[in-house]
Amino acid sequence: MYKRLNREFEIDSLTKTGKKIEYGIDTPMGFAGIKYSYVRLKEDPLLKVIPAKYRDRCTFSLMEVNHKIPAHTDSGIEAIINFYMTDDRMITQFYHPRDDAETVQIANQTDGAIFHDKYLKKSDRFMAHSKQAYLLNVSHPHALVPTPDGPKPIRRRAICMQLLDTSWDEAIDMLKETGYIDD
Ligand SMILES: [Fe+2]
Fold it and tell me: How far, in Å, is the centroid of ligand 1 from the Cα of 74?
C-alpha cells in the first residue's frame, strides 16, 4: 500500500499559485482538514524518480493538513508520490475495507469515498519525516492520525505528485526503473 523512496528530497523555491481543492469543514477557528494548492516549484529533481517517457503523467500540488483526516480513498487516482516537508508525526494508516463496507461521499469527491470505522480493518501504516518521499496507493482506504508528540496545532505540508492514468503496479515498475525504490 506504500513504498518509501530510497533517497531524500529538499523542496525549495515553492510558490502557491492558486487553490485546487479542499476537503474538510469550516469551524469557528477556521478551516479544518486538507487543502491542495497549485504550485510553482523546481520540478526537475522530483521528476527524476519517473522515467522520462512517463513524465507527462505527473502533476504537482501542495498538500496542507491541519486536522486528523478520516479514512477515505482519493478521487480518480491510484498512485501518488508525496514529498514530505514537515516533521508533523502524523501516521498514515491504511485499512482493508470489509466486503460489506458502506461508504459516503462528501462535497468535491467523485469516485473517492469516506469509510465508517466499523467497516475497516487496520493494515499497513507509516510515519513520514521531513525530506522523505513515499509512493502511496490511494485507492486503498487511508487516514491521517495525529500522535500526542506531534505539533499543536497540526501543520503538515507535502508536495503531492499525482501519477495520472497509472496503476500501482505500473508505478512500482517506474520507480524500480529509475532506481528510487528497492525490491
Ligand atoms: Fe488521501
Answer: 5
Inter-residue contact 161 to 54 (CB < 8 Å): no
Tally of CB atoms within 10 A around 141:
25
CA of 30 to the centre of ligand 1 (A): 21
Count of C-beta atoms within a 10 Å radius of residue 183? 4
Q: What are phi and psi of 170, to 5 degrees?
A: -65, -40
CA–CA gap between residue 177 and residue 11 (Å, rounded): 23
> How far does the centroid of ligand 1 lie from the alpha carbon of residue 72, in Å?
6
- What topology is assigned to 2-178 in CATH? Jelly Rolls (2.60.120)
Domain range list for the chain: 2-178
pTM as predicted: 0.92
57-81 pLDDT per residue, tens: 999 999 999 999 999 888 889 999 9
113-to-15, 16, 41, 99 alpha-carbon distances in Å: 30, 27, 30, 15
Residues in the chain: 183
CA distances from 68 to 40, 74, 122, 126, 147 (A): 27, 16, 16, 15, 10
Per the rule left: phi > 0, alpha: psi between -120 and 50, beta: everything else, 68 is beta
pLDDT band at 12 (very low <50, low <70, confident <90, very high): confident
